[in-house]
């Protein structure tokens, strides 16, 4: 048992990146180089491109700026020409002085900044050479990402010393374990009373293959779809353990025939993560321990969406419907989602039978994913849905 490491993996460091619109392509390159830290659950990274249409832009910026532990200032002439960027920079420097957060200037393009207020800070790259002047920009971003990684690890190690899971966490996790520890026997017809069967006594690891031809309108987080069954014509495609794939993808859609084990796999994921957090174990066998949330999409449509509730709002209602005893549950789930510590498991898109409901719920799912972009999630549907799923 490694309590410190488990706590560190469970509570990622919040990063806030600010850049001029003209530098968005450079920002995206930096984000790619930080993706391994995101995938491991070491960091969350927020920037203005994460704001959803219709959201209060200023409120979203202020909220994420106030919770950031590291603020990245992506410097260029356009950055300093922007009043918006300059205001955020000055606020970041104020937070650094008052809250002792990390403010990291990153030189994207050449600029004379030595006379400015943050000239005393250590700039990246550490040689003071702006990214665009490097012969190999990947090398520059790799250097920057490594420096950020060292700061993140130092913060995680410091935070791990006294971090414990609260009674509220344990209450929720014990409830979820009780809900998933036994095999779901709904739909199994029997003339005799069926006793409870422990999930882990009968669980069989699944194999999956990449389905690159899924018809999806526009790029979405679920563009990488997986199938849990293999037809004769697809047997030539490589098959991998599904648990192996899940640890390497932030957003997945799993497609499979009825009875192929999709729901059981989701319950297995929820159970393993809940047990790991309760026992403060870092590795679940299916990725670093995360706060699991399990939801049946058809329930959301019937009890939440038709009543005008967003998916995030309905999560609390769904737990209450299933007799979750945790006090202040809304605050707990909101905090875990905002911090990017969750693993959201969404079951049964194919069970939404009406086309109008399907269209709306897909939109709601996409809004949820974009709002919590740093939160890994897994969505299940039947294999025949591959040509009708349009998450955009």
The number of strands is: 11
Based on Cα principal axes, name the global outline: elongated
Q: Biggest β-sheet, characterized?
A: 7 strands, mixed
Give the mean pLDDT. Answer: 79
In the sheet with the most strands, the strands line up as: 7-5-6-8-11-10-9
Name the beta content range: 5-15%
Number of domains: 2
What this model shows, in words?
The protein has 392 residues and is an alpha/beta fold. The chain folds into two domains: 3-160, Toll/interleukin-1 receptor homology (TIR) domain (Rossmann fold, 3-Layer(aba) Sandwich); 167-387, P-loop containing nucleotide triphosphate hydrolases (Rossmann fold), CATH 3.40.50.300. It has helices at 3-10, 24-33, 35-39, 57-67, 77-81, 83-99, 137-160, 167-180, 199-202, 242-246, 262-279, 297-303, 311-321, 329-338, 355-371, and strands at 13-18, 43-46, 70-75, 102-107, 207-211, 225-227, 240-241, 251-256, 291-296, 342-347, 377-382. A seven-stranded mixed sheet has the order 7-5-6-8-11-10-9. Strands 2-1-3-4 form a four-stranded parallel sheet. Helix 8 runs antiparallel to helix 11 (262-279) and helix 13 (311-321) packs across helix 14 (329-338). The longest helix has 24 residues, at 137-160. 36% of the residues are buried.
């Amino acid at each position: 048992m490694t309590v410190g490491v488990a706590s560190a993996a469970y509570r990622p460091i919040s990063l806030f990146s600010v850049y001029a619109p003209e530098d968005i392509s450079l920002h995206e390159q930096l984000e790619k180089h930080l993706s391994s830290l995101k995938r491991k659950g070491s960091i969350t990274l927020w920037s203005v491109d994460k704001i959803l249409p219709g959201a209060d832009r200023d409120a979203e910026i202020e909220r994420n700026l106030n919770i950031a532990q590291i603020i990245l200032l992506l410097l260029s002439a356009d950055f300093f020409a922007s009043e918006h960027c300059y205001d955020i920079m000055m606020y970041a420097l104020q937070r650094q002085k008052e809250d002792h957060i990390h403010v990291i200037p990153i030189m994207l393009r050449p600029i004379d900044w030595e006379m400015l207020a943050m000239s005393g800070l250590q700039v990246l790259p550490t040689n003071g050479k702006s990214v665009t002047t490097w012969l190999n920009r990947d090398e520059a971003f790799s250097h920057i990402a490594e420096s950020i990684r060292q700061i993140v690890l130092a913060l995680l190690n410091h935070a791990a010393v006294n971090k414990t899971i609260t009674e509220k966490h344990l209450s929720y996790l014990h409830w979820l374990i009780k809900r998933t520890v036994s095999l779901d026997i709904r739909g199994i017809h029997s003339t005799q009373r069926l006793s409870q069967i422990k999930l882990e006594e009968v669980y069989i690891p699944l194999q999956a293959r990449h389905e690159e031809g899924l018809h999806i309108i526009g790029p979405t987080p679920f563009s990488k779809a997986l199938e849990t069954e293999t037809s004769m014509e697809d047997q030539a495609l490589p098959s991998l353990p599904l648990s192996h794939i899940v640890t390497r993808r932030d957003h997945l859609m799993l497609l499979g025939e009825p009875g192929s084990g999709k729901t059981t796999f989701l319950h297995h994921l929820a159970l393993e993560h809940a047990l790991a957090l309760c026992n403060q174990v870092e590795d679940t066998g299916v990725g670093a321990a995360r706060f699991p949330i399990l939801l049946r999409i058809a329930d959301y449509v019937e009890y939440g969406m038709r009543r005008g509730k967003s998916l995030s709002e309905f999560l609390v209602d769904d737990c209450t419907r299933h007799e979750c005893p945790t006090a202040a549950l809304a605050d707990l789930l909101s905090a875990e989602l905002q911090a990017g510590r969750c693993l959201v498991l969404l079951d049964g898109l194919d069970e939404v039978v009406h086309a109008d409901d399907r269209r709306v719920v897909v939109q709601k799912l996409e809004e949820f994913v974009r709002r919590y972009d740093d939160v890994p999630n897994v969505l299940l549907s039947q294999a025949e849905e591959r040509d009708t799923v349009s998450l955009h």
